[in-house]
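Margin note: ligand = S-adenosylmethionine.
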Amino acid sequence: MLERRNPDRAVEILEAGCGSRWDVQLDGLDYRVIGVDLDAAAVNARMTVRKDLHEVIIGDLLKVDLGERQFDIIFNSFVLEHVIGAEALLRRFVGWLRPGGIVLIRIPDPDSVKGLITKLTPHWFHVWYYRVVLRYPGAGEPGKPPYPTIYEPVVSRTGIHDFAARHGLVVSEEFGSGGIKKRDRLIDRAINLFTGLVSAFSFGRYSDDHTDLLIVLRRPH
Ligand SMILES: C[S@@+](CC[C@H](N)C(=O)[O-])C[C@H]1O[C@@H](n2cnc3c(N)ncnc32)[C@H](O)[C@@H]1O
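Resulting structure:
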């Protein structure tokens, strides 16, 4: 996907909102990754447990000063839905991106049943869901998800397409993914039934065949 215009140097990656982990495999690639996040507890966990960042900045992506630095890849995974000023952050990404570089954006799709419920329910419900349904250890504690959700209008498939068109970026790939795992727990079957019913009663307006979106934007040369 990435054009290696300059194979003599490492691919430079900005992980914008790096949190405590990433699930990306880049074996065999010569790369350097700098993580930025405002949650010191999450970043400290990342630095002491995962140890997979070459450089880290604890700070707000909307304010951090990266000077003239530009990147081949900006990886922004499940962050935009938490940001007040998501469009301003996307504009910063455009400035940080080398010509030919890509931004990978992952968001929970607000046009999925999961996204709809995430938007309509309070934060305490998200904490309960992480603890009880996802069985996420320490959910809601400092440095651990879930984080409060804002979901500005640009944080959607159409919003990101529109932003790309206005800022000279090309949507080069997009995928839907995720969903309740096919475990045989009663609660999982109940959730699958519920999301299927919401999708059906919305006449397909809200999808239940995926929960998350990955959109890849390219800055042309
Ligand atoms: C749901 S977590 C995602 C973490 C990681 N990217 C992942 O996919 O697992 C959201 C992260 O975005 C960070 N974040 C939210 N707003 C931010 C901002 N304005 N500047 C920097 N980080 C921010 C939070 O601190 C948190 O670590």
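Residues 17-19, 21, 36-39, 42, 60-62, 77-79, 82-83, 145, 147 surround S-adenosylmethionine (CB under 6 Å).
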